[in-house]
Amino acid sequence: MSMMAGETRVFEGISKDIRSRVDRGELRPGDKLSSERDLAEQYGASRSAVREALRSLERGGVIELRKGPKGGTFIRQADAGLVTESLNDAIIFAGVSIASLTESRTIVMTAVARLACERGTEADFDRMEKSIALTERLTREGDFDARRVQLLDFYRLMGQATRNEVLLILVSALTDLVLKLMSQYNAPPRSTTTQAHKRIVRCLRRRACEEAVALMAGHLDKLHAHFRKSALDAGATNSSPK
Predict the structure, then answer these.
(1) Span 103-143, pLDDT tens digits
(2) Which of these, 7, 48, 109, 187, could form a disulfide with 3 (CB 3.0-4.6 Å)?
(3) Domain hosting residue 102, numbered range
(4) pTM above 0.85, yes or no
């Protein structure tokens, strides 16, 4: 049986509110929503309206339904895996250059820095600083493979601070691919990376957006130049006579 017009407006309102809470960072990937009955009480709606709202959110990729003893309705983690795979295929099979990849990443990350500066919260910036501290610890321990993975977390946290799901996917995919290629070409870590990250976070806290953007652009330009040199050196080594 189709929903009445009033019920339709109710379920659309519920969907919109949950989406807004995700955008504001009140609900984060992995958070579990209340039960259908509790949501109905919370919104003063029928359970059928809540059920339809949840279906709409599931179709939109905002939530996922898990079965089992620890099941329920959870906010979905943005999945950049398919984007990363497509970019990787483009580099291997379509001749997309590393220079184009790194240039695109700089364009995306400078836009992310500006939005994170405008929309990020102190809690977002705290998480970034904790991520930087973990990167520094891994550097001291000489665990450079884990350090590369941890660096992805810093950029992803900045993407989350934009409250823009598409940008978050792009940040994760582009950063993941660049770091994988850096590992493939055995690019050594840059000692200045965490210091650059700290300066960027300080700018975000002060809402010094243009300064944060300039720092991000300068940092990535140097990082990508470092990476391209490692890739060229690796290519020269691989092509040299044995």
Answers:
(1) 999 999 999 999 999 999 999 999 999 999 999 999 999 99
(2) 7
(3) 81-239
(4) no
